[in-house]
Design a protein that fits this description.
The structure is a single chain. The chain contains 6 helices and 7 strands, in the order H-H-H-E-H-E-H-E-E-H-E-E-E. It is α/β, with parallel strands linked by helices and 185 residues long. The chain has 2 domains: 2-43; 52-183, Vaccinia Virus protein VP39 (Rossmann fold, 3-Layer(aba) Sandwich), CATH 3.40.50.150. It has a 7-stranded mixed β-sheet with strand order 3-2-1-4-5-7-6, covered by helices on one side. The termini are far apart. The mean pLDDT is 93. Bound molecules: S-adenosylmethionine (SAM). S-adenosylmethionine (SAM) binds next to helix 2 and strand 2.
Length: 185
């Protein structure tokens, strides 16, 4: 989402400066800067922040413990994984692929002196061997991919808290305000 604003700002600057060389350089830089976020938007989910009501549901369903290693699959501006880190979990890690959103999350973590880890990367390609909780807020089709690609590799006992989207062939243990809790058996 932030990519759209960056794109418009650079196009406006290109017209304002009017240099052909600047325009070419700006366009090349933009492609690299914007591409990961567009991919994330299409094959994960666009940036949408979890509401307070849904976050409370996550806390209630998640029952976070000291031993939990929590991953946020697409952490956006990092506020959800930050709040979870404050629940006293062992580790709280957020992956984000959109460059502008990742930079916002890093600045945010620095401002609030967060203890969460914000990592730039594609959550589809990570290892969740040590995960005890995964947080998802994905598009329905991406949740189907999650069911095929990530769910089968999760360790026994892992919990998945999915905001809004459901898996097709796995039944949630519980549901609260459209947050679904899945347990890997
Ligand atoms: C719906 S937002 C969720 C933000 C946050 N987790 C929350 O609950 O408030 C989804 C985020 O996932 C990011 N994303 C989508 N696909 C991704 C991928 N493959 N790897 C890393 N981040 C991704 C998007 O850029 C976006 O910021």
């Amino acid at each position: 989402m932030l990519e759209v604003f960056v794109l418009l700002a650079v196009i406006a600057l290109m017209f304002h400066i009017g240099s052909f060389l600047f325009s070419i350089l700006a366009l090349v830089a933009l492609v690299f800067f914007i591409f990961p976020g567009v991919y994330a938007m299409l094959f994960g989910a666009p940036l949408t922040i979890t509401s307070k009501r849904r976050f409370s549901a996550m806390l209630e369903l998640g029952k976070f413990k000291k031993s939990d290693v929590v991953y946020d699959l697409g952490c956006g501006d990092g506020r959800v994984i930050h709040k979870i880190s404050k629940e006293g979990v062992k580790k709280a890690i957020g992956y984000e692929l959109s460059i502008p959103t990742f930079l916002v999350a890093i600045v945010r973590k620095w401002v609030v002196r967060g203890e969460e880890e914000i990592r730039f990367g594609n959550f589809w390609n990570q290892d969740y061997e040590k995960a005890t909780v995964l947080i998802c807020f994905l598009l329905p089709d991406s949740m189907k991919q999650f069911e095929k690609k990530i769910w089968p590799k999760l360790p026994k006992g892992a919990r998945v808290l999915s905001n809004d989207a459901q898996m097709k062939n796995v039944k949630p243990e519980k549901e609260l305000h459209k947050v679904y809790l899945y347990l890997k058996k």
